[in-house]
Write a structure and sequence with these properties.
Layout: E1 3-10, H1 14-26, E2 29-36, H2 39-48, E3 53-56, H3 65-75, E4 81-85, H4 90-99, E5 103-106, H5 113-150, E6 154-158, E7 164-167, H6 187-192, E8 210-211, E9 225-232, E10 241-248, H7 250-275, H8 282-297, E11 301-308, E12 311-318, H9 322-327, E13 330-332, H10 336-342, E14 347-349, H11 358-366, E15 372-379, E16 382-390, H12 399-434, H13 443-472, H14 478-488, H15 495-527, E17 534-537, H16 538-548, H17 550-556, E18 559-564, E19 568-571, H18 573-589, E20 596-605, H19 606-610, H20 613-619, E21 632-640, H21 681-691, E22 695-700, E23 706-714
Parallel strand pairs: 1-2, 1-3, 3-4, 4-5, 18-20
Antiparallel strand pairs: 6-7, 6-10, 8-9, 9-10, 11-12, 11-16, 12-13, 14-15, 15-16, 17-19, 20-21, 21-23, 22-23
Helix pairs in contact: 2-3, 7-8, 12-13, 14-15, 15-21, 16-18, 18-21
């Protein structure tokens, strides 16, 4: 089979050209050729076509081989250049070879032409392959360099003596001087300063792959780190270099510390709630409570004062000295400590100060009291007393500690008030019993009083039972506790306290929604192709979802219209309902009061879908490859006239945890849907549609607002 050969002839003689072409055809080549005689025509030929070889006469009336070589070199192409001349001296041939000619031969000896052609084509192919290989190596090296610098961990390469040879670009995030700050220095000195304790980190991570078992803090850097090292063998070296991978785990440590603190607080609340279940008297409960605080919160001193007979009296204490207890046993209302207690606000300090009575201050200093905090025991605006805790360490009480102590004190105040009510009721019952013989004529009144007392007693017992249940069982459910305090307890709160509880409640609602969304995403990703698809009416699904939002829609005065083709579409109905629900919830949130939301569905043919390609390509670059190939599709659209989505954010809204704009713009209403979402709702919708082999996208609605479209294949 003939091999195709593209030949550019630089020759002024047509006869000589025909001889060359005949010789090549005899060598088994199928020729594509062109003959040129001038530099300009040669440039055009090289510009317009691809050539395998250039064959040139040495000298022509207006051109020569050296000029042709110059023209070829200008193009930068690597094409074999063979000189064929009727007569050429050895010195001229040598000059031509030095200028870049591949070979030369005489017109009288064309038998060499085919072997020379085979050799030059083979060598040209080898050079081309070598260039491609070198380019691939260079490109691969650049890619690995980019990966090396893109890694979020700090990577440092040292020689066997610990001298830094190289590092990745992450160094600039930790050392202001960048590469210049660490290249050529000892790694020990960079991270530990002039002295590193013997056996520490970089001195024991040598020669073998290893990793520090414990988290490390470096004197020259802030935060926590984990270090691993690996030997790196280099050619020609007997001792390996070392690669250190230094991972910044500060955020992980902060999260772990936050979790430990939260766990301790929850465990403290649970233990306190358990102790508050006792019915052995107020003094017993207060003593048990202080014991739990010492165990759970590492307190050294504590005491509880209650207002009695216009004085502040100590009713329970733990860890305090006899002198301090005596000095603080009874405090008149006019003392500074009692005045601060009556204000109903926490007060604290780093050491005993003038707020203590003089003798109490001396006793506190003597027993080593350092940090202390006093929180009020109150119901509504009524202050029943105060609870004081303290330590001998240098620890300071944070706002979080004060909040936790106030929560515990509030529950204790409720229990004390319940006990007081119980004691009063008990005294009344005894008084009625003693008067029974004397008041026989008022028997009916006594009976009615007893019935009323029984009702009050039942109400009291029910109240205690409910409060106990709320404290014991759902204590780990913060939302339930905060909701109880905000809506049902009747406790009068200061605006600051109310805002704190509202913030906690709203945050917990967001957390619950986030968990639900994460579970939905996990289910979608784990399930893969939907196995539960069956024919269903999407119009019916829309109406059922609409019914779920009847209350918020009425509060916001938003109208919802549902119209469209009522045909059966193969879907996973639960997932389809979740997708529609997320879109309708967003439409309500971002639509102003009195606005309108429209849900419309229609059947599309494949040709109609192709017309949407420019829009869908922005959201799915592989469209239509990402959707199932079928003759018909069902298009469900949710259109609102709300605040809209900026064009540059329409694709990103389907990313996980992405939220549009400032939180203040996440609702235009005043009664519902006022918090920023988790940023997962639209990501869930996209996952549902991908599982259906469909698509979801968003466009600007006519007249303002947004139109979200769901595309379902109709099999």
């Amino acid at each position: 089979m003939s091999k195709e050969l593209r030949v550019l002839l630089v020759e002024d003689s047509e006869e000589d050209s025909l001889l060359l072409l005949r010789e090549l055809r005899r060598g088994g080549y199928k020729l594509i050729h062109m003959r040129v005689e001038t530099a300009e025509s040669m440039r055009r030929a090289l510009h317009d076509g691809e050539w395998d070889v250039v064959i040139s006469d040495y000298r022509m009336p207006s051109f020569d081989a050296l000029g042709a070589l110059q023209v070829l070199h200008e193009t930068g192409r690597d094409i074999p250049f063979i000189i064929v001349s009727g007569k050429i001296g050895e010195d001229l041939a040598v000059e031509a070879m030095k200028s870049g000619a591949s070979d030369y031969l005489m017109k009288g000896n064309l038998a060499r032409l085919v072997p020379v052609m085979v050799r030059e084509l083979r060598e040209a192919e080898e050079r081309r392959t070598h260039r491609l290989t070198q380019e691939a190596v260079r490109r691969g090296k650049m890619e690995w360099e980019s990966v090396f610098d893109a890694v979020s961990d700090l990577i440092i390469i040292t020689d066997a003596n610990g001298i830094v040879l190289r590092c990745n670009g992450r160094v600039s995030a930790y050392f202001p001087g960048g590469y210049g700050a660490i290249i050529g220095r000892r790694i020990d000195e960079i991270f530990f300063g002039s002295e590193q304790p013997e056996g520490k980190l970089f001195r024991f991570l040598h020669s073998v792959q290893s990793e520090a078992d414990e988290d490390i803090r470096f004197p020259n850097l802030s935060g926590w780190y984990n270090v691993a090292s690996y030997p790196m063998r280099t050619e020609g070296s007997n001792r390996p270099n070392l690669v250190f991978i230094i991972k910044d785990i500060t955020k992980r440590r902060e999260v772990e510390e936050e979790k430990r603190t939260s766990d301790r607080e929850l465990l403290t609340l649970y233990a306190v709630a358990f102790r508050l279940q006792y019915t052995k008297g107020v003094d017993k409960v207060m003593g048990d409570l202080l014991f739990q605080l010492h165990n759970m919160l590492q307190m050294d001193f504590s005491c509880i004062h209650l207002f009695e007979d216009d004085k502040l009296k100590m009713r329970a204490s733990l860890g305090v000295s006899p002198g301090f207890e005596k000095a603080m046993k009874t405090l008149p209302r006019e003392t500074k400590w009692a005045t601060l207690a009556q204000a109903g606000r926490p007060f604290l300090g780093e050491e005993p100060d003038a707020r203590f009575p003089a003798r109490a201050k001396s006793a506190a200093i003597e027993m080593g009291l350092h940090s202390w905090c006093t929180v009020p025991l109150k119901i509504g605006q009524e202050v029943m007393g105060v609870m004081t805790v303290g330590t001998v360490s240098g620890r300071s009480y944070s706002d979080r500690d004060v909040f936790l102590l106030c929560s515990i004190a509030g529950q204790l105040a409720v229990l004390i008030d319940n006990y007081s009510l119980y004691d009063k009721m008990k005294e009344k019952a005894e008084e009625l019993y003693r008067s029974k013989e004397e008041l026989k004529e008022n028997l009916q009144k006594v009976k009615r009083a007893n019935i009323e007392l029984g009702r009050l007693n039942t109400a009291k017992n029910n109240f205690i039972g409910i409060a106990s249940h709320e404290l014991k069982t759902p204590i780990t459910s913060i939302m339930g506790g905060v909701e109880f305090l905000l809506k049902y307890s009747g406790i009068q709160m200061s605006p600051e306290q109310h805002n704190i509880f509202v913030s906690v409640y709203e945050g917990t609602i967001q957390l619950r929604k986030l968990v639900e969304d994460l579970l939905s995403i996990s289910r979608i990703e784990a399930q893969g192709p939907l196995a539960q698809k069956k024919p269903a009416s999407l119009m019916r699904v829309c109406r059922e979802v609409h019914d779920l939002f009847a209350l918020p829609l009425s509060e916001r005065h938003i109208a919802v219209e549902i119209t469209g083709d009522d045909v059966l579409v193969p879907v996973d109905e639960a997932f389809a309902m979740l997708a529609v629900r997320n879109l309708l919830e967003n439409a309500i949130k971002f639509t102003r009061d009195g606005g309108c939301v429209r849900l419309a569905g229609r059947v599309l043919k494949q040709a109609q879908l192709k017309e949407m390609t420019p829009t869908l390509r922005s959201f799915y670059p592989s469209f239509p490859g990402n959707v199932a190939a079928t003759e018909k599709y069902y298009l469900l659209q949710v259109r609102d006239n709300g605040i809209g989505i900026p064009p540059d954010e329409r694709v990103r809204v389907f990313e996980k945890f992405y939220g549009v704009g400032d939180i203040d713009h996440h609702s235009s209403g005043a009664t519902a849907f006022m918090s920023k979402g988790s940023g997962l709702g639209l990501s869930i919708v996209r996952g549902i549609m991908e599982a259906h082999e469909g698509a979801v996208w968003v466009e600007e609605a006519e007249g303002g607002g947004s139109t979200f479209s769901l595309l379902f294949p109709v099999e």
